[in-house]
Design brief:
- The chain is of the alpha/beta class and 228 residues long.
- It folds into two domains: 122 residues, Response regulator (Rossmann fold, 3-Layer(aba) Sandwich), CATH 3.40.50; 96 residues, Orthogonal Bundle (Arc Repressor Mutant, subunit A), CATH 1.10.10.
- 43% of the residues lie in helices and 22% in strands.
- The protein has eight helices and twelve strands.
- The strands form three sheets. A five-stranded parallel β-sheet has the order 2-1-3-4-5, with helices on both faces. The protein has a four-stranded antiparallel β-sheet with strand order 6-7-8-9, covered by helices on one side.
- Helix 2 packs parallel to helix 3, helix 6 crosses helix 7 and helix 6 crosses helix 8.
- The longest helix is centred in the middle third of the chain and has 19 residues.
- It is elongated and about 55 Å long.
- The two termini are 37 Å apart.
Length: 228
């Protein structure tokens, strides 16, 4: 099935250029030139990925992003912005963007990021809907985590980190890899950010807080998810 991409961009030359190039790549393209139309088009066509400009009429890109995340927490969103400021990147990623690209951008770079995002979606769509280890169940369809019969409350970032680690059992991943894949390459956090979130997962999911069972520290490198 042809993958669908929605482009929300008010600059006609950029919009048409992206549409032409992405159609040549084999994608089915839908477009909108203002924020409100972007949301309406998203609801109608349910795309696999959204390319979203920030400076839009009627509703800005941040407002559109918030609306999209309420409609679909999983869909990939690549934000485009003429502003390269740190605060803009942080706000976009905090609101749920998967990637952030400053204008002017290289078409090849945007295509690479689109392909990477959709590749992860393809892999996820082709896998099982649940993962179980010990007494923990990750339900990918509902984005719920159970410990026994009890549902464990998790933030979106905690859940994404858990899924990332659980998809790589017994493999060592560095803190940098985790930051890039879970927070995004443009996120300017530190190793300590990862450490703090690992502590949260241990507290919520492990029975013995003094000795980690699932989320093992590999000193000087990163972490290993080791299911029983």
């Amino acid at each position: 099935m042809t993958e669908k991409i929605l482009i929300v961009e008010d600059d006609t030359s950029i919009l048409r250029g992206l549409q032409l190039n992405l159609e040549m790549e084999g994608y089915q393209i839908f477009t909108a030139e203002d924020g409100q139309s972007g949301i309406e088009t998203f609801e109608e066509h349910k795309p696999d990925l959204v390319i979203l400009d920030i400076m839009l009429p009627r509703m800005n890109g941040y407002e559109v992003l918030e609306a999209i995340r309420k409609l679909d927490p999983e869909v990939g969103v690549v934000v485009l912005s003429a502003r390269e400021g740190h605060d803009d990147k942080v706000l976009g990623l905090t609101l749920g963007a998967d990637d952030f690209l400053a204008k002017p951008f290289e078409l090849r770079e945007l295509l690479a990021r689109i392909n990477a995002r959709l590749r992860r979606k393809r892999i996820k769509d082709s896998t099982v809907t649940q993962l179980k280890f010990a007494d923990v169940t990750i339900d990918y369809e509902s984005r719920r985590v159970l410990k026994g019969e009890e549902e464990i409350e998790m933030t979106s970032r905690e859940y994404n980190l858990l899924c990332y680690l659980a998809s790589r059992p017994d493999r060592v991943v560095t803190r940098t890899q985790i930051l890039d894949e879970v927070w995004g390459k443009d996120y300017e956090g530190t190793d300590r950010t990862v450490d703090n979130f690992i502590v949260r997962l241990r507290t919520k999911l492990e029975s013995n807080e003094e000795k980690s069972t699932f989320f093992q520290t590999v000193r000087g490198v990163g972490y290993r998810f080791s299911p029983p």
